[in-house]
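Thread: sanity check for a docking pose with zinc ion

Original post by kr_44:
Hi all, I'm comparing my docking run against an independent structure prediction. Below are the sequence and the ligand SMILES. Could someone generate the full complex and paste the structure tokens? I mainly care about where the ligand ends up relative to the chain.
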Amino acid sequence: MRWTCNCGDVELAVEPGDGTRLVCYCTSCQDFANRFGGGDSLDAAGGTDLFQTAPETVKIVKGQSNLSWIKLTPKGPHRWHTTCCDTPMANTLGTRAIPFTTVLAHNIDDKAALGPIVARVNRASATQNIDGEHGSMGKVIRPLLWRMLRSRLSGRYKQSPFFASDGTLIAKGVTVHD
Ligand SMILES: [Zn+2]
Ligand SMILES: [Zn+2]
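Reply from moderator J.T.:
Ran it for you. Here is the predicted complex with zinc ion included:
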């Protein structure tokens, strides 16, 4: 699958088949989407379509120099976006030692390959009622823990495209919380 920013300068290759698709309605995800891309990546209820996967299954194909991140809350992730066209892209933690990687599905070309949405989380801050199946956090947490363990034991967490070989973040960013 390809993730492409709105102007086309940044491209990621994302392997399908090994991730979890979920929608998050939390206010931080909404804040991120509103700051970058004017909220275009949000669904009608303020949800962000997310694909959680292993860091080693994501590659930056081009445009690495057009990446930056923002950290909105003390406990929140590093939220990656492009600087060419302000497209929200991915969430990681500040250290590759905890291999958490989520790509925003909005700009992924083949959404069918992401699989079904298994959970809709933080629904209390959705901007309208959400119909249908809500899934459960367990369907997100269990595969997440399994992927993180596998990435750690195999050493492949070091292949995260968001960290240099020495473990430092590949781009500068800003922290807007105290
Ligand atoms: Zn762009
Ligand atoms: Zn969220």
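The two ends are 37 Å apart (CA to CA). Hope that helps with the comparison, let us know if your pose agrees.
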